């Protein structure tokens, strides 16, 4: 049964505007359009939308997703199987990091003692074991956009990067009761912006959007607030102020 764009948006949890954008760039064009101009999405359209969102979850940019799914050699079943492998690996890494956050909370309360090594468990910047398979199937550019630049670092460099990230978060947590617009807060946020751009390219808009995600996605909020209650909201506000000022 065909569905209108608003029905699809409500079903999936994305905006009507996003679906319109996918149509405009030729990524997902509904199979039918009524005489009144209403877009009608078929079951096949919904299957392809699911595929697109799987690729997005793994970090693929829209342009590359379009190239992949429009290719005559694209195999949906094969893609789903590889998506599953990569998502399971991602879940494994996140579970380890969540466990580290939980231990850090206990450590900060004085309930347990953590070794220096334990503080950085889960911060694994090595390549996903299915990366080479993805490279062979969909090309280097797609995978390069789905991974960080940290993958080529030595173990020592990875540990140094983890320590730097922890230091930035610790500093930000100590500032979370201050004004996010203060000079000190903005200096710390600048360090966070520079750090993120060592791993990939973050525009000011993307940086601001990431800050909003810290609050909108409760999984992010829980992990970030493990460093200090209210830190996620502080980061959102400070990152928005930083981005807006830099654009002027």
UniProtKB/TrEMBL annotation:
* Source species, domain of life: Bacteria
GO molecular function terms attached to this record: DNA binding; DNA-binding transcription factor activity
Q: Which InterPro entries match?
A: DNA-bd_dom_put_sf (IPR009061), MerR-type_HTH_dom (IPR000551), MerR_fam (IPR047057), TipA-like_antibiotic-bd (IPR036244), TipAS_dom (IPR012925)
Q: Which residues form the HTH merR-type domain?
A: 2-71
Gene3D superfamilies per record:
1.10.1660.10, Antibiotic binding domain of TipA-like multidrug resistance regulators
Q: Does the keyword DNA-binding apply?
A: yes
Keyword Lyase on this protein? Answer: no
Q: What's in the keyword line of the UniProt record?
A: Activator, DNA-binding, Transcription, Transcription regulation
A family per Pfam: TipAS
State the name under which the record lists this protein: MerR family transcriptional regulator
Task: Please name the taxonomic classification of the source.
Answer: Bacteria, Bacillati, Bacillota, Bacilli, Bacillales
């Amino acid at each position: 049964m065909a569905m209108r764009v608003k029905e699809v948006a409500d079903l999936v949890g994305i905006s009507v505007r996003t679906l319109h954008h996918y149509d405009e760039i030729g990524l997902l064009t509904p199979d039918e359009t009524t005489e009144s101009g209403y877009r009608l999405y078929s079951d096949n359209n919904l299957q392809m939308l699911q595929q697109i969102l799987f690729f997005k979850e793994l970090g693929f940019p829209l342009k590359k997703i379009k190239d992949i799914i429009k290719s005559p050699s694209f195999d949906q079943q094969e893609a789903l199987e590889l998506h599953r492998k990569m998502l399971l690996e991602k879940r494994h890494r996140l579970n380890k990091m969540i466990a580290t956050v939980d231990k850090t909370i206990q450590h900060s309360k004085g309930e347990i003692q953590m070794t220096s090594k334990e503080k950085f468990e889960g911060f694994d910047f090595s390549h996903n074991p299915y990366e080479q398979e993805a490279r062979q199937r969909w090309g280097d550019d797609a995978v390069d956009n789905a991974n960080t630049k940290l993958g080529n670092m030595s173990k020592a460099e990875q540990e140094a990067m983890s320590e730097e990230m922890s230091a930035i978060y610790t500093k930000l947590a100590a500032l979370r009761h201050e004004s996010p617009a203060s000079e000190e807060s903005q200096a710390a946020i600048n360090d966070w912006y520079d750090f993120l751009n060592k791993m990939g390219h973050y525009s000011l808009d993307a940086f601001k959007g990431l800050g909003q995600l810290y609050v909108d996605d409760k999984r992010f909020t829980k992990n970030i607030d493990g460093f200090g209650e209210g830190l996620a909201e502080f980061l959102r506000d400070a990152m928005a102020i930083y981005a807006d000022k830099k654009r002027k």
